[in-house]
């Protein structure tokens, strides 16, 4: 259910959880009972099927508990790429 914001002239802004399309232009303030006008809000758009949304959901899901790796990935190993910069040869090696 959507959350609607209303502004009471005496008490300030408050939120009401109402069914879709059930929110009127005015509602009574829960504290003082004065008529409060509904504030315009941004629509809750979602990209539930997009690759970006799936990446964000996966990142959030694994932030606290990362996936456990049971084995090395299968497939051919790629050879290590060697740097072509001659200055890298002077770096200390482990």
Automatic annotation (TrEMBL):
Region named Disordered: 60-94
Ranges of residues in domain Putative regulatory protein FmdB zinc ribbon: 1-41
Protein name: Zinc ribbon domain-containing protein
Native organism: Kocuria oceani
Lineage: Bacteria, Bacillati, Actinomycetota, Actinomycetes, Micrococcales
């Amino acid at each position: 259910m959507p959350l609607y914001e209303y502004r009471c002239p005496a008490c300030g802004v408050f939120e009401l959880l109402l069914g879709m399309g059930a929110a009127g232009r005015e509602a009574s303030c829960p504290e003082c009972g004065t008529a409060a006008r509904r504030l315009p809000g941004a629509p809750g758009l979602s990209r539930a099927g997009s690759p970006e949304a799936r990446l964000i959901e996966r990142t959030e899901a694994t932030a606290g508990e990362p996936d456990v790796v049971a084995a090395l990935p299968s497939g051919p190993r790629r050879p290590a790429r060697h740097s072509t910069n001659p200055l890298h040869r002077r770096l200390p090696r482990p």
